[in-house]
C-alpha cells in the first residue's frame, strides 16, 4: 500500500493528526494494531489542565518550572482549540470548562502555591490565588482546615470516549483510510 503519510496509532493523537492532514488534502492512511481509542486515549478521565502540577513543582523546584513555563502557553492555546472543537467536528464531545481547584492544607503548601502561580502568570496562565475565605466561598464543601489554594477557570474535561471516535469519523469523511487490527511490521520509503 502507498500513501503520502502513514499514521501509526489510533488514539487521539493519531486520529487528530490524520484528520488535520486529510483536511489539508494530504493522502493519509492510519493503522491501529487493535481498536481505535482502545489504549490510553480511551481510558483516562478526559481532564484538561492548565496549571503546573503542584506535586511535580514541589518535587522538581522552581528552575524546572521555569523551564516548563513555555509549555504553558501551548497549554493555554489548547483550551482555545477545545472551545471550537465540537463545532469543527460537528458533534457533542461533552466538553466543559468548570475550572481547576488546587487546595493547600498548610502555610508551607500555600507558599509553594503562590510561588507556582507567580511562574504561571509569567507565562500567561491567569491562576487566581485563593485565601481561606475565598476558598470557602468558591468551594464550601472543602474542609475549613484548608488554608487557601489556587483556581484556574480554564480547566475542565471532555469525554475521551467521544473525542477520538469523532476525529476518526471526520478523518474518514475527508478520505483517510483507517485500517484496524493490523500491526505495522516494516516501513519502506521510496523516492517518488
- Termini gap: 14 Å
Computed over alpha carbons, the radius of gyration is 21 Å
Instruction: Please give the domain count.
Output: 2
Percent in strands: 15-25%
Multimeric state: single chain
Coarse shape: elongated
- Helix count equals 5
Low-confidence stretches: none
User: What is the residue-mean pLDDT, rounded to a whole number?
Assistant: 94
Kindly state the number of beta strands: 9
InterPro entries: FAD-dep_OxRdtase, FAD/NAD-bd_sf
Protein name: FAD dependent oxidoreductase domain-containing protein
Keywords: Oxidoreductase
GO molecular function: oxidoreductase activity
Feature tags:
single chain; 192 residues; alpha/beta; FAD/NAD(P)-binding domain; 2 domains; 3-stranded antiparallel β-sheet; 9 strands; 16% strand
Summarize it.
The chain has helices spanning 12-23, 54-89, 107-122, 132-138, 160-173; strands at 5-8, 28-31, 47-48, 96-97, 100-104, 128-131, 148-152, 156-157, 177-179. The protein is an alpha/beta fold and 192 residues long.
Structure description:
- This protein is α/β, with parallel strands linked by helices and 192 residues long.
- It has two domains: 1-46 and 159-192, FAD/NAD(P)-binding domain (3-Layer(bba) Sandwich), CATH 3.50.50.60; 47-158, no CATH class.
- The protein has five helices and nine strands; from the N terminus they run E-H-E-E-H-E-E-H-E-H-E-E-H-E.
- It has helices spanning 12-23, 54-89, 107-122, 132-138, 160-173, and strands at 5-8, 28-31, 47-48, 96-97, 100-104, 128-131, 148-152, 156-157, 177-179.
- The strands form three sheets. A three-stranded parallel sheet has the order 1-2-9, covered by helices on one side. It has a three-stranded antiparallel sheet with strand order 3-8-4, with no helix packed on it. Strands 5-7-6 form a three-stranded antiparallel sheet.
- The radius of gyration is 21 Å and the shape is elongated.
- The model has no long low-confidence stretch (mean pLDDT 94).
